[in-house]
Amino acid sequence: MIYSQGVRRWLLAMVFVALCMRAQAQVPALTPPQGLPSLQDVSVEEYRHHLDQLRGLVADCGRAVTACNPESVGNDDRVHPLRGQPYAVRYGWLRALLDDHDPAVHRSRAELLAQAEQRLNDQEEELNHPKSVSPLRQEDRVQRDRVLTSKEFQVVHEYSWRERVSAWLSEKLARIFGGAASLGRIAPWLGRALEWGSLLAAITLLVLWIYRALDRQRTALGRLTGDVSKREAIEASRAWAELAQAHALNTEWRDAIHCLYWATIVLLEERRRLRRSETRTPREALQLLVVSPQLREPVVAQTVVFERVWYGFDSATQEDYEAAQQNYRRVQGAAMGATI
Q1: Is 305:320 a contact under the CB 8 Å cutoff?
Q2: Going by DSSP bridges, is the β-strand pair 39-42/76-79 parallel, antiparallel, or unpaired?
Q3: I need a labelling partner for 290 at 20 to 30 A (CA). Which of 95, 143, 147, 227 fits?
C-alpha cells in the first residue's frame, strides 16, 4: 500500500507537468506586460559610474557564465543633464542578454557581449558629446501622430485570466528548466549522474514493488497453507484417536494405547514440533522434542506407557488407556494452541 501511494503521487505529478506544458503551448505569442523597472534619478556622473559597472558586468559574463545575472544590472536611469530635460535610459536589452533562459543567446554569447560593450561605450560617448536635437517641424509632428494612431500601436488583445495563468506557469517552468540547463553547462557530469541516478531509482522502486508483491503473496499462501496443515493435523490425529476408541470399546487396551501414541506423534509432526520420520524410535522422538514443559511432560508420560505396553508386552489395563487418553488431550490442547 505504501508503494502504491508513492506511484500514485508520481503519476499525479507527471499529469500536472503535462498539463502545464499543454498550457504553455496555448500561451499567446506575446506575454502579458509585466511593467517596466522603476527609474532612479541620477546625475551625469552617477550615470557614467553606472555605465562603468555595466561594462565590468559584461566583461565578467564573458569570462564566466555564472556571472551573467540580469538582476545585477540594477534599475533603469533617469539622467538629469546640466542643461536640458531629464531623459530615461532603459537596460532591458542588457537584462535579456544576461538572462540564461534563451538557447539562442548561448550560441552567440561572445558576439552579443561584444555588441553590448560597444553599445555601452556609445552611450558614454553620447554623454561626452551630446547631439543637438532640432525641434520637429509641423509636418513631422503630423506624420508622427499618424503613425502612433495606427493599429500597430493600439491594444488589440486583452488577455484573459486563463492566458495570464498559462503565461505565469510557462515563465516558472522556463526558469526551472533553464536553471537546470545552466547548471548542466557548469557541471557537464551532472546530466549523466542524474540519468543514471534516475535509472537506479526506477530499478530500486521496481525491485521493492516486486518484493512487496511477493511478500504479500507469500504471506497469503502461508496463511492458507497453515490453515490446511492445521486441518490435516486435526483430521489425521482424530482418525488415530477414533481408532483407539474403537479398540477400547472392544477392551483391546494395548492396541488403543498404541493408536493414541501415534495420534500424538502425528499431531506433533503436523504442528512442526517433530520432523517426520518412519525409522525413529520413541526415545529418539523425545530427544528431538524441544518444546515447553506443558507439552513435553504429557508426551514423556505417554511414551513411557506406550513402551511398557507395546514393546515390553506388559498387560494393559483400562487405567493405562485412560491415562494415555488424558495425556493425548493435554498434548492436543497445548499443540493446537501453540503458534507455528
Answers
A1: yes
A2: parallel
A3: 227
Q: Is residue 44 within 8 Å of residue 82, measured between CB atoms?
A: yes
Burial class (CB in 10 A: 0-12, 13-18, 19+), 275: exposed
The contacts of residue 289 (CB under 8 Å, 6+ apart) are: 268, 273, 274, 296, 299
Can you count the helices (H) and strands (E) in the chain? 12, 3
58, 120 Cβ separation under 8 angstroms: yes
b/e map 161-198, b = 16+ CB within 10 Å: eebeebbebbeeeeeeeeeeeeeeeeeeeeeeeeeeee
* Residue among 114, 108, 98 at smallest CA distance from 64: 98
Do residues 335 and 290 touch, judged by C-beta distance below 8 A? no
37 secondary structure, DSSP code: P
Closest listed residue to residue 89, CA positions, set 59, 132, 119, 112: 119
Q: Is the pLDDT of residue 203 over 90?
A: yes
Do residues 328 and 260 make contact, with C-beta atoms less than 8 angstroms apart? yes
Question: How far is residue 340's CA from residue 273's CA, in Å, rounded to a whole number?
Answer: 9
Query: H helices within 74-160, ranges in order?
Result: 92-98, 103-107, 109-128, 138-148
pLDDT digits (tens, 9 = 90+) for 302-328: 888 888 888 888 888 989 899 888 988
Q: How far apart are CA 64 and CA 56, in angstroms?
A: 12
Query: What is the distance between the terminal CA atoms of the chain, rounded to a whole angstrom?
Result: 26
Domains, the chain, in order of start with CATH, read 2-28+36-129+160-186 (no CATH), 226-337 (1.20.120)
| pLDDT over 80 at 61, yes or no | yes
